[in-house]
Amino acid sequence: MKEAFTQCQYPDVEAYNRLGELVGMPRYKLVQWYGDMRYHIKRFRPHWMTSEQYGQAVANVRYRQSLRALWKKKAKSCAPNNPSMGSLYALKIPI
């Protein structure tokens, strides 16, 4: 799991399922572990990550979280109670 995390901090559904089969763990536990690790690496480097892997992982996590924050801000400004932006409410930004 650690090696998979160093390669990808935001796996898709298929990757979670493959990893779950490989390590013999239910998908919901993997999702929780990945979320915990993303939280953890923002504070300090795990001993099993190299400095380079850590730098890339933290940059990826921060980038994805900033995209999510922008998406939430955009969705809020496009809410149905804002008549000038109502048609944009269904705007979806892939994360």
UniProtKB/TrEMBL annotation:
**Superkingdom classification of source:** Eukaryota
GO cellular component terms?
nucleus
Localization per Swiss-Prot or TrEMBL:
Nucleus
Concerning InterPro entries, the annotation shows: HD (IPR001356), Homeodomain-like_sf (IPR009057)
Which UniProt keyword terms apply here? DNA-binding, Homeobox, Nucleus
Q: Which residues bind DNA?
A: 3-45
Give the organism's phylogenetic lineage.
Eukaryota, Metazoa, Chordata, Craniata, Vertebrata
Q: Which PROSITE patterns match?
A: HOMEOBOX_2
Q: Does the keyword Amino-acid biosynthesis apply?
A: no
Protein's organism? Dissostichus mawsoni
- What residue stretches are annotated with the Homeobox domain? 1-44
This chain's protein is named: Homeobox domain-containing protein
Q: Which GO terms describe its molecular function?
A: DNA binding
- Reported function: Sequence-specific transcription factor which is part of a developmental regulatory system that provides cells with specific positional identities on the anterior-posterior axis.
